[in-house]
Description:
This protein is an alpha+beta fold. Helix content is about 35%, strand content about 30%. The chain has one domain (about 10-190): Peptide deformylase (Peptide Deformylase), CATH 3.90.45. Nickel (II) ion binds next to helix 3.
Amino acid sequence: xxxxxxxxxxxxxxxxxxxxxxxxxxxxxxxxxxxxxxxxxxxxxxxxxxxxxxxxxxxxxxxxxxxxxxxxxxxxxxxxxxxxxxxxxxxxxxxxxxxxxxxxxxxxxxxxxxxxxxxxxxxxxxxxxxxxxxxxxxxxxxxxxxxxxxxxxxxxxxxxxxxxxxxxxxxxxxxxxxxxxxxxxxxxxxx
Length: 191
Ligand code: NI
């Protein structure tokens, strides 16, 4: 297990569509090691999720975990989830404006529209199938990771560029309002 380097915006690998993983590949020591590395890398960087392209591997694998993270006090906890060949589809048309950042886009945040109710179908690291509903901010996190696997960054989805902020300015000027909105969303739709 090791912490890998996270590539940043501008690296072409972030713009590639990652490819599906075969069952044999998933069972291989190399891919199991890659998944361990992704978990270590996400945790070391204090992120809520990480897609394989972000460490230079164009495979449809992502990891998500939200603990009581001081960086994201408004995010409901999500147990460690490994997504292999995931498919995410909206359950209805409702969206919400969510303030996002990305480990591959250092020190920048912006507001994007995300579906508030999604169905997530995925394999876990042992190849078992899961079919789940994810709601609210958690639904947004899963859509963000899926986007990575399709070569899309949250930057592409920011409709109003005046919402871009650094982390420092976000905390100073926008965190309180966003945290209130986020908590209202969680109370209304769940996570
Ligand atoms: Ni990201």
